[in-house]
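Worked example

This section walks through a single chain of length 325. The input is the sequence exactly as stored; nothing has been trimmed or padded.
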Amino acid sequence: MIPGLSNRRRFADLSQQEILALAISSEEDDARIYRTYGERLRAGFPGSAAVFDAMAAEEDDHRRRLIDMHRDRFGEVIPLIRREHVQGFYARRPVWLIDNLGLERIRDEAVMMERDARRFYERAASRTTDAGIRALLGDLAAAEAGHSELAETLTKTHLDDEQRDTEERVAHRQFVLTWVQPGLAGLMDGSVSTLAPIFAAAFATGDTWQTFLVGLAASVGAGISMGFTEAASDDGAISGRGSPIKRGIASGVMTTIGGLGHALPYLIPDFWTATTIAIIVVFIELWIIAWIQNRFMETPFFRAAFQVVLGGALVLAAGVLIGFG
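Given that input, the structure is written out below as tokens.
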């Protein structure tokens, strides 16, 4: 038996009073979540924060209507029952996890919240026999279904074209600072810094398997080093570059990928075939780096390509010369 499952009630076993109590606590939770979204977004996205504030106010209205119905039918004392007390009931993402969500992802999360709430009210309405309670739950199901339209209306009210453009620019900048910049630095480091040891090992030993092991060790080691360095160098509080964990993951993973790209061909037993493919992969990696610089960092493509290819070619040549030496 799953621990704690025996302590949960089946939805089918809830009384009409408990269904109302569950709806009240759920509306309270959703209002708090929306207000938390708004508070977290207020500094960078004030328009979107106003949208979530208005959605929280809508949830407050639902809660008041449910409490009035409970007071009318069952009195003042509302039983304590929450989502986690009911088997199979939908759960909400902990609000502290929104630090790891972008603006669009938070908006998508709100859409899913409204969808889950609509399904709950539809199911709850089908379980009740009291005409007044059933009517209220049906009305709330319809209200939740219409919240996508409400959100769109609120967005138009609180976000004009200029504000939306500003928020999109801020979100794009945050994406670049948190993911693209450290990932690009990692890819450049992994692609370029591992060239010398891999090709030096290749031409010194002529052994593809030993070369692959050198490349694997260099790539993984560089990835771990870059990941920890990026995460430890800046907590993002002052620079605004975002979560150090996310930046560390982006940098570490891309560093490892950059090195493995030209190490993997040495799994091919034939030395010259493996080396030829590895060199081709190197130039593909360098062109990808130049494209990323042009696409996200707005570096002119040919200048980026010249810098990256020249630097990579010099490191590659150094590795080959050392290997022959």
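What to look for: The radius of gyration is 28 Å.
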